[in-house]
Write a sequence for this structure.
């Protein structure tokens, strides 16, 4: 199943006036949000972040889960450095993540890696959660 069929809402951003666009998909759960940031091969990453009324979903300070290239830093909570991770692997990792209510679906919160989210100056984006029926 693709991200669009799962119900992701897509947002387009620019790094600067002349830079390439960044595409970010958001899927809101009751207590967290899954985000896929599609940029260049090095900047593509995905994360699951807690939802708070004052937090910017595209600039998280904490995450439950993160996956992407980490050439310059270790993954949160580990000493692993992922090199050569492609957009396909980031998307696969996100789409195979268990639902937050399932075992392993909502790991402990940890600090987000530097660069997590959408880069550049922009207005903060807050996502409202709606009850699912």
């Amino acid at each position: 199943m693709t991200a669009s069929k799962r119900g992701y809402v897509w947002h387009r951003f620019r790094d600067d006036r002349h830079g390439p666009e960044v595409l970010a998909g958001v899927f809101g759960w009751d207590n967290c949000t899954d985000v896929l940031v599609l940029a260049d091969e090095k900047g593509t990453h995905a994360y699951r972040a807690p939802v708070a009324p004052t937090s910017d979903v595209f600039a998280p300070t904490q995450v439950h889960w993160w996956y992407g290239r980490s050439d310059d830093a270790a993954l949160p909570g580990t000493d692993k450095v992922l090199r050569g991770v492609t957009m396909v692997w980031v998307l696969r990792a996100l789409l195979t993540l268990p639902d937050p209510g399932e075992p392993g679906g909502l790991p402990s919160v940890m600090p987000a890696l530097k660069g997590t989210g959408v880069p550049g100056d922009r207005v903060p984006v807050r996502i409202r959660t709606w009850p699912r029926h």
In short: Helices lie at 3-6, 87-95. The mean pLDDT is 79. The two ends are 21 Å apart (CA to CA).
